[in-house]
């Protein structure tokens, strides 16, 4: 079984676990989450249980609830802030946030193949630790088509040294017969402008920088933090090599230097 399939099975197992007696409905995901409660610990005979053991078992349940919560949100590539996690998972146990999150981070990495990344402003996201190489991008339904579009856009941005104007991106897509206009539906990708400006930006695959002047508004796109973790610069350059009939990737000197420098940092 592949690592991706194994991770999918493990995710389904933890998400299918029965919830505890006391439940809270998450205000955004619309699901019930297992919530550790005081009554859970109270059911353990105090004569046979030390306070440290009660806290440890309670922490384990909190870790499980955090993992379930993050995995569910990751289905929509949502970014979640610390306040929201405490509200929907920890309740009045917010003081345990640092230790529980450290344990959850370790389990997410070892068991599920995800990295829990902390962003600016006490925000968190899950990123896929299995690098997206070209063979992994399979056009299966809406999600697959969006991933193909995303890879095309990220490759274009990378080839322009990780920063491109909206005009440049629009012209590039037009050359591929992919319309970039308001309310314009592509037969395969759908509303391309909406996906790029709203969906990919919200998912942190793209950073969108808007520069206002007196008479003009300029927009630039860069790789976002999720793209930095999940997508391979080498795969992007190898894709360009295929487009140019096997042109050596080293012939793009600036891009090759950038990817080799990044690969050294990732070791």
Can you put this structure into words, describing what you see?
- The protein is α+β, with helices and mostly antiparallel strands and 267 residues long.
- Among the domains are: 57-126, MAGE homology domain, winged helix WH1 motif (Arc Repressor Mutant, subunit A); 140-230, MAGE homology domain, winged helix WH2 motif (Arc Repressor Mutant, subunit A).
- The chain has 11 helices and 10 strands.
- The strands form 4 sheets. Strands 3-5-4 form a 3-stranded antiparallel β-sheet. Strands 6-10-9 form a 3-stranded antiparallel β-sheet.
- α3 (51-74) crosses α5 (97-112), α6 crosses α8 (192-202) and α6 (141-159) crosses α10.
- The longest helix has 24 residues, at 51-74.
- It starts with a helix and ends with a helix.
What's the quick description here?
This protein has helices at about 5-15, 40, 50-75, 80-90, 95-110, 140-160, 165-175, 190-200, 225-230, 235-245, 255-265, and strands spanning about 25, 30-35, 80, 115-120, 125-130, 165, 185, 190, 205-210, 215-225. Among the domains are: about 55-125, MAGE homology domain, winged helix WH1 motif (Arc Repressor Mutant, subunit A, Orthogonal Bundle); about 140-230, MAGE homology domain, winged helix WH2 motif (Arc Repressor Mutant, subunit A, Orthogonal Bundle), CATH 1.10.10. Helix content is about 50%, strand content about 15%.
């Amino acid at each position: 079984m592949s690592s991706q399939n194994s991770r999918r099975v493990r995710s389904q197992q933890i998400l299918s676990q029965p919830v505890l007696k006391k439940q809270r409905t998450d205000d955004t995901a619309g699901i019930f989450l297992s919530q550790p409660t005081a009554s859970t610990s109270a059911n353990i005979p105090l004569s046979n249980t030390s306070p440290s053991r009660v806290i440890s078992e309670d922490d384990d349940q909190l870790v499980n609830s955090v993992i379930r919560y993050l995995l569910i949100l990751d289905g929509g590539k949502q970014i979640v802030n610390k306040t929201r996690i405490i509200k929907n998972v920890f309740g009045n146990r917010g003081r345990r946030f640092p230790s529980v999150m450290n344990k959850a981070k370790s389990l997410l990495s070892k068991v599920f193949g995800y990295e829990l990344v902390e962003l600016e402003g006490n925000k968190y996201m899950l990123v896929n630790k299995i690098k997206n190489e070209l063979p992994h991008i399979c056009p299966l339904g809406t999600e697959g088509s969006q991933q193909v579009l995303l890879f095309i856009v990220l490759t274009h941005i990378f080839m322009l040294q990780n920063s491109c104007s909206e005009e440049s991106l629009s012209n590039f897509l037009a050359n591929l017969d992919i319309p970039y206009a308001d309310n314009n539906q592509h037969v395969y990708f759908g509303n391309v402008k909406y996906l790029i400006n709203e969906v990919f930006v919200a998912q942190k695959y793209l950073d969108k920088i808007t520069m206002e002047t007196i008479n003009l508004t300029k927009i630039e796109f860069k790789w976002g933090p999720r793209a930095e973790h999940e997508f391979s610069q080498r795969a992007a350059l190898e894709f360009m090599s295929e487009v140019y009939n096997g042109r050596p990737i080293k012939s793009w000197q600036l891009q090759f230097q950038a990817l080799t420098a990044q690969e050294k940092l990732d070791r």
